[in-house]
Design a protein that fits this description.
By secondary structure, the protein is of the alpha/beta class. The protein has one domain: Rossmann fold. Helices cover 28% and strands 25% of the residues. It is built from four helices and eight strands; from the N terminus they run H-E-H-E-E-H-E-E-E-H-E-E. The strands form two sheets. A five-stranded parallel beta sheet has the order 2-1-3-4-5, sandwiched between helices. A three-stranded antiparallel beta sheet has the order 6-7-8. Helix 3 links the parallel strand 3 and strand 4. Helix 1 crosses helix 2. The longest helix is centred in the first third of the chain and has 19 residues. It is globular, with a radius of gyration of 16 Å.
């Protein structure tokens, strides 16, 4: 996906969210750090532009809620900033890529520690399949079938200097816990 494709996908997701929620009442957009957070901010801005009302957005660090924390190299914690009380609100959780579903499960746990939303919905830029948990996104920018040996890397302008979705292969010369894309990959 090129920058215009990412913009169009996020705009479409924004409209779907408002339509599904029947407006913006009680709506909160929360992005999973790292790359879900800027996507959540963009979705909130997009909704504000066509609904003429601000939608609160925030960011969630799920590091301590992950079930694979012992398998990965330690990473520094980032802040969790959730706007106001989540009780009774509709929270749209935003992430860059939906893969096994484990990050989303961790995000559910983190959100429920912060309050009791009326509903939690999921929006992702890319759904690549290969689920290990029964989790499905409500709003998807692009379904991108991949093999288990491929990696999908989303770049966002706020962090990486440009918007893109890249596909590459795992470098099998390193352990699976530290596998990384072999090359920059090809754009979708």
């Amino acid at each position: 996906m090129e920058p215009p494709d990412v913009r169009r996908a996020l705009r479409r997701i924004s409209h779907e969210i408002v339509e599904h929620n029947r407006g913006t009442d009680d709506l909160v957009i929360v992005g999973i750090r790292t790359r879900g957070a800027p996507l959540a901010d963009r979705i909130a801005s997009s909704i504000a532009s066509f609904e003429s009302t601000a939608v609160p957005s925030g960011a969630l660090d799920v590091t301590l809620y992950r079930d694979d924390v012992a398998l990965k190299s330690p990473r520094s914690l980032e802040s969790t900033t959730v706007p106001g009380d989540l009780d009774g609100r509709v929270v749209v959780l935003v992430d860059d890529v939906l893969y096994t579903g484990r990050t989303i499960r961790a995000a559910f746990d983190a959100l429920l520690d912060l309050g009791r939303p009326r509903a939690i919905r999921l929006a992702v830029l890319v759904d690549r399949g290969h689920r290990e948990l029964p989790i499905r996104a409500d709003h998807v920018g692009k379904n991108l079938p991949t093999s288990a040996h491929e990696v999908v890397k989303v770049q966002v302008d706020e962090i990486d200097g440009e918007d893109a979705v890249l596909i590459g292969e795992y470098d099998t010369s390193v352990s699976s816990a530290t596998a990384a894309p072999r090359a920059e990959g090809t754009r979708t």
